[in-house]
């Protein structure tokens, strides 16, 4: 009886004005080649964060699957990064931020 566990990218979506990259991965458990369990997990990637001087620090996507990296690099243009940076700066000045 052989049990295997793999992780598969099930879906990559680009959402919204700031091109958030949503990734769904599935953990798949198989017994003798027959799937017995599938558990989804989602995470969202944004172009970056602000440092203490309000400079945009690019998101570290080096640990992501090559396909996810390719999508993020394609949609996170300079214009998108600038818009995201401006949004983050504007959000800082909102009450409760």
Describe the protein's architecture and organization:
The strands form two sheets. Strands 1-2-3 form a three-stranded antiparallel sheet. A hairpin with a 2-residue loop joins strand 2 and strand 3 (34-45). The protein has helices at 66-75, 78-92, and strands at residues 3-15, 20-31, 34-45, 48-50, 56-58. The radius of gyration is 18 Å and the shape is elongated. It is built from two helices and five strands. The protein has 97 residues and is an alpha+beta fold.
Characteristic terms for this protein:
single chain; 97 residues; alpha+beta; 3-stranded antiparallel β-sheet; two-stranded antiparallel ribbon; 2 helices; 5 strands; 26% helix; 44% strand
Mind sketching the topology for me?
Layout: E1 3-15, E2 20-31, E3 34-45, E4 48-50, E5 56-58, H1 66-75, H2 78-92
Antiparallel strand pairs: 1-2, 2-3, 4-5
Largest sheet, spatial ordering of strands: 1-2-3
Oligomeric organization of the protein chains: single chain
Largest sheet: 3 strands, antiparallel
Q: Which of globular, elongated, flat, extended, rod-shaped describes the shape? A: elongated
How far from one another are the termini? 54 Å
Number of helices: 2
Average pLDDT taken over every residue: 96
How many DSSP-defined strands?
5
In percent terms, what proportion of residues is strand?
Answer: 35-45%
Class based on secondary structure composition and strand pairing: alpha+beta
């Amino acid at each position: 009886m052989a049990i295997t566990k793999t992780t598969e990218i099930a879906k990559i979506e680009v959402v919204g004005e700031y091109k958030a990259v949503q990734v769904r991965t599935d953990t798949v458990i198989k017994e003798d080649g027959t799937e017995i369990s599938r558990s989804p997990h989602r995470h969202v990637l944004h172009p970056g964060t602000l440092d203490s001087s309000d400079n945009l620090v690019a998101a570290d996507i080096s640990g992501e699957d090559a396909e996810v990296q390719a999508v993020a690099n394609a949609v996170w243009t300079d214009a998108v990064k600038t818009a995201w940076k401006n949004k983050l700066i504007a959000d800082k000045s909102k009450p409760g931020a």
